[in-house]
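Exercise 7. Predict the joint structure of the components listed below.
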Amino acid sequence: MTSNSPPISDAYLHAYVDGQLNAAQRADVEAFLKEHPSKARQVKQYRMLNQQLHGKFDASLDEPMPAAVLSLCQAEAPMTKKNPWRGRIAAAVAWLAVGGSAGWLLHSGVGQSQNLVTASAQQHAYDAHRFYVREGRHAVEVPAADKDHLMKWLSGRLGTQVGPADLTSAGYQLLGGRLLPAGDYASGIYMYENAQHERITQYVSTEPGVRGVAVPQCEAFQSLSMCVWNKDALTFVLVAATQPDVLQKLAQQVREQAMHPTL
Amino acid sequence: MEHFRRSLLEHAPALRRYARALTGDRTRADDLLQDCLERALLRARQYQAGTNLKAWLFTIMHHLFVDGLRSAKSGPVLVDFDAATLDLPVVQPEDGELDDLGAALLRLPAEHKEVVLLVCLEGWSYQDTARILDIPLGTVMSRLHRARETLRQQIFGADESGGAP
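Solution:
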């Protein structure tokens, strides 16, 4: 990049196009280009590329800023409520990594779509499913035979009426449920099983989380799929070893029924 | 802090233009912009007054973009990708305005795309680009050359000139 005698390096040509040379250097390059038409064409096309980039993207400079950005930059008020379904997995990953925990969060394939709290609800749901799904009779604390008692108990601890769904049309029967800790909050699971002994875990938690994720968001992770959504103060996670689109349909059923359980 | 917030807004248009070109998608670009400004506010104390705020913001956006690629990549996305690059799976932008340049940008490896956009679209000097991306100046130059050559050949067609150094 320092040589100013022919042949002129590519780096020099770029610097010429980008206006990063002084007058003497520019003169050297221009002299060189007169003698090398193919290099001159290369330089011309670099310039056209720059123009095309500006032509394509400069219009965005004049578009109005999204309201969320405006309030972020103008208000001293509390931080804007952002699209809740995005986020900040890094902090959660770091936090978990310190604790030595691994799994759903550390794979962090949840990508653009989680905030910290929902991600931790997913982690809890994922752990609970993996931990209890292998248990035979002891997968649940209260069996489906005591469904009414189970529902009252979990609803009491969750502070809201939350029941299991009727998934028999999809071949799944309620197996039962149990209460689980979720940090300082309460959570519970209802577990379902089909004739092939494949199980689905419906995780419900009062962990303060995102709001407004009305439609279950489903993703595959290793051999499992998870669907997440929110209803009022509750975060729901459905976990099973199925395809995400299959689980999505079941999640819709759970979403419609869980808050209006029939005793 | 009030002043800091207003300064953020001054740089928001350029950050958004960069995000649009980087992601090829309006929604993702707006998300990236908002994440960037939020992180800037959270870390406002780490910003040293008198230093280049715009460069600091571009650095934050660069980190968020790369983090996003990493998490997207380690996830269950069922696409082939070149493990040697941080390229995103090619997605159709929702705007549906995928011209030659847009398509060529989507195909460009992310680390090449960042350099070419910072220099050619955002007008950063090579030195500033090296600082924003935290890479050596020589790496900026080699990525710039490769990115530009790739774009040039895809848009204007291959020819005998330029090409391999």
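Discussion. The first helix of chain A runs from residue 10 to 17.
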